[in-house]
Design a protein that fits this description.
This protein has two helices and 27 strands. By secondary structure, it is mainly β. The chain has two domains: 25-67 and 233-385, no CATH class; 73-231, YVTN repeat-like/Quinoprotein amine dehydrogenase (Methylamine Dehydrogenase, Chain H). The strands form seven sheets. A four-stranded antiparallel beta sheet has the order 1-27-26-25, with no helix packed on it. The chain has a four-stranded antiparallel beta sheet with strand order 2-3-4-5, with no helix packed on it. It is globular.
Length: 385
C-alpha cells in the first residue's frame, strides 16, 4: 500500500510538471476581422483594448482573454450632431477607422479616435458610448486624458487642438498658435498632460519633409503658450507610449525617420534633444537594435522600470532587449503576420502584441524562454534608467 501511494504521488507530480510545461506563454485574443495595429493596457492591467482595421475597438479580460466589449460606433446619419462652440464643422460620410485608444487614469473610461472625424468616450464596464466629440474637421491623431480624468485633449489633421470635459462631452478650450513658427504648415502630432495636470505638452510637426519637431508647453486652463523648444529630427515620436525611460535619461528613436528597415537605437535623451545628427548619425547613441536579418522595426518602447526595451517587427516577432547593454533577452514568436505593436503591462510582467494576422497576444514574460547571455564581465556597466 505504501509503495502504491508513493507511485501515485510520483505520477501526480509528473502530471503537474507536464501540464506546467504545456501551458502556453501567451493568451491569444481572437475576434477582429482585419489587421490589429494598436493595443493598450488599462492602468490596473486587468483590461486591454485593441484597435483594428475592421473599424472596431475591443476590450478584453487580460487574465482569461475573453472579449468583454466590441466598441463599434453608430453611423452619424442616425444621430443628432452637436456643434463645438465657435467652430464651423463639416462631417463627411461615415468611414470610421479607429487609430488609437486611451484609458482614463482610473480605468473607467476609454477614448477612441475615428476618421469620421470624431472622438468617442465609452464606459469600460458596460461598453456604453457616453459621448461623441464633434469639433475636428479632419480625423483626429491623438487623445490624452488629464491625470484626474476630467479633461481630454485631442489633436487633428485639421491643425487644431481641443480640450474637452469628459463628464459632459462639451468642448472647453480651443488651442491656437502652436504652428506659428514661420515654417511650413504642419500638425500637432502628440500631446500629454504634466503629472499635476496644470500644463499640456504638445509636439508640433512643422515640416513633414524632414520631420522637424517643435515642442510647446502650454497652460492647461488658458491655453497660453509657456515655453517652446526644438528637438532632434531623428526623434520619431516624443509621446508614443514609453519612448523615454522612467527618469528621462534615455529615449528610443528611429535612426533614419521614414525609411522602411531603418534600425532603432537607445540614445542619451539630453544629447539627442539638443544636437542635430548628420548623415544618418544619431546624437547620443548608446546602442542599436535590429531584427536580423530582414525585419523592419515597427514600434519600440521601454518597460515600466526602464530596464528593458521591446520592439515589434515585420519579421513576425517582438523582441526584448536589455536597456543597458543592448543584449537581446527574449523573442516572442508565433504570429503569422507582421507584428505592428508591442507594449508592456503596467507591472512589466506581461506584454501585448498586435499583428497583421488579425490577432493580439498577451504574453506572460516569465514563461517566455530567456536567450543565452554573455558573461557579466562583457555586459555594459550603465545603471541609470
Amino acid at each position: 500500500m505504501k509503495h502504491f501511494l508513493c507511485l501515485a504521488f510520483v505520477l501526480f507530480l509528473s502530471a503537474c510538471c507536464l501540464q506546467a510545461e504545456e501551458t502556453p506563454a501567451f493568451i491569444e485574443l481572437k475576434g477582429h476581422e482585419s489587421i490589429v495595429d494598436y493595443a493598450v493596457f488599462s492602468p490596473d492591467g486587468k483590461r486591454a483594448a485593441t484597435k483594428s482595421w475592421d473599424r472596431t475597438t475591443r476590450i478584453w479580460d487580460t487574465a482569461t482573454g475573453k472579449e468583454l466589449h466590441k466598441l463599434s460606433p453608430v453611423p452619424d446619419a442616425e444621430r443628432e450632431i452637436p456643434n463645438f462652440e465657435g467652430m464651423a464643422i463639416a462631417i463627411p460620410m461615415f468611414t470610421t477607422f479607429s487609430p488609437k485608444a486611451a484609458f482614463s487614469p482610473d480605468g473607467k473610461l476609454i477614448a477612441t479616435i475615428h476618421t469620421d472625424p470624431t472622438v468617442r468616450i465609452w464606459d469600460v464596464e458596460s461598453g456604453e458610448e457616453l459621448h461623441t466629440l464633434f469639433g475636428h474637421t479632419k480625423p483626429a491623431i491623438f487623445a490624452a486624458f488629464s491625470p484626474d480624468g476630467k479633461k481630454l485633449v485631442t489633436g487633428s489633421w485639421d491643425e487644431t487642438v481641443l480640450t474637452w470635459d469628459t463628464a459632459t462631452g462639451n468642448g472647453i478650450l480651443i488651442h491656437e498658435g502652436f504652428l506659428d513658427t514661420g515654417r511650413d504648415k504642419g500638425i500637432v502630432s502628440a500631446a500629454a498632460f504634466t503629472s499635476d495636470g496644470t500644463k499640456i505638452v504638445l509636439m508640433c510637426t512643422t515640416d513633414v519633409h524632414i520631420r522637424s519637431k517643435i515642442v510647446r508647453i502650454c497652460d492647461a486652463e488658458s491655453g497660453e503658450i509657456l515655453d517652446t523648444f526644438l528637438n532632434s529630427p531623428s526623434l520619431r515620436s516624443l509621446f508614443s507610449p514609453a519612448p523615454f525611460s522612467p527618469c528621462g535619461t534615455k529615449v528610443v528613436v528611429q535612426k533614419m525617420v521614414g525609411y522602411m528597415g531603418s534600425p532603432y537605437a537607445v540614445v542619451n535623451a539630453d544629447t539627442n534633444l539638443r544636437e542635430q545628427g548628420m548623415g544618418g548619425q544619431v546624437p547620443g547613441e548608446l546602442f542599436e537594435m535590429r531584427h536580423r536579418p530582414f525585419g523592419s522595426i515597427t514600434f519600440a518602447a521601454f518597460s515600466p522600470d526602464g530596464k528593458k526595451v521591446i520592439t515589434a517587427s515585420t519579421d513576425k516577432t517582438a523582441r526584448i532587449w536589455d536597456a543597458h547593454s543592448g543584449a537581446e533577452l527574449q523573442s516572442l514568436e508565433g504570429h503569422t503576420g507582421f507584428v505592428w505593436y508591442a507594449i508592456f503591462s503596467p507591472d512589466g510582467k506581461r506584454v501585448i502584441t498586435t499583428s497583421e494576422d488579425k490577432t493580439a497576444r498577451i504574453w506572460d514574460m516569465e514563461r517566455v524562454p530567456v536567450l543565452p547571455q554573455p558573461p557579466p564581465s562583457e555586459r555594459s556597466a550603465i545603471t541609470d534608467f
